[in-house]
Amino acid sequence: MRILICEDSVLLREGLVRLLQHSGHEVVSALPDAESLREAVAHTDPELCILDVRLPPSFTDEGIRAALDLRRARPALPLLVLSQYVEEQYASELIGTTGGTRSGAIGYLLKDRVADIADFVDAVERIHAGATVLDPEVVSQLLARRRQDDRLQRLSDRERTVLAALAEGRSNQAIATLLHVSEATVEKHITSIFQKLELDVDESGNRRVLAALVHLEHTRPNPTQTGTQR
Fold it and tell me: What region holds the Response regulatory domain (predicted)?
């Protein structure tokens, strides 16, 4: 896989280059900021981009803005955004770009996940294959924020667990292994979740759940809330 990295930390950037190369992937470019990102993408034609949320010069939202800009310019390009902390608003903005048949997959992970090399590389490869992967902490906070929503109240504890696992990008088989149940049981839970969240069941089940999370986030009771404190 051809990968482009945009990360200001030299240590993390070089670490990502080495672990991805060691895993058999090609890093076509490793940038310290997003200034020349568009040109680098056009020149190297990567199959996946990894970006830090906060990049120079202001270290606020340059990375997420660059990711959204890339999504508009190249909607089929898979993106993985790394963040030091859970930033729900940014995660929601990214998830909101997954609609449509030409939209590539996205991932939003905390930088701590990079330390688990096997899981991180697996997440990268799943995103490249079309999965949308959210960090468990992001999923947990999104669900916790919407605890009072009537639609989520309809879910059983087991269905909430399945919903969170789906939003983390896990396959039905992986969820079945996690919960020590059959895949058929997982499929029944997923069908029930979609019904209770008033969603149609289709082949893009993972994205449907992510879309549901975004919808719930955008219809929160207090419209003045915009995300977690940073």
Answer: 2-126
Coil, strand, or helix at residue 185?
helix
What mean pLDDT comes out for the span 61-82?
91
- Given this structure, which CATH class describes domain 139-218? alpha beta
Q: Which residue has the tokens 């930033």?
A: 87
> Which helix (H) or strand (E) is 19 found in, with range?
helix 10-22
- 2-134 maps to CATH 3.40.50.40: no
Task: Give which of 81, 64, 85, 87 is closest to 228, Cα–Cα.
Answer: 87
Q: Is residue 227 very low, low, confident or very high in pLDDT (cuts 50, 70, 90)?
A: very low
Task: List, in sequence order, every beta strand (DSSP E) within 135-202.
Answer: none
Q: Rounded to the nearest 5 degrees, what angle is found at the Cα of 3, between the Cα atoms of 116 and 8?
A: 70
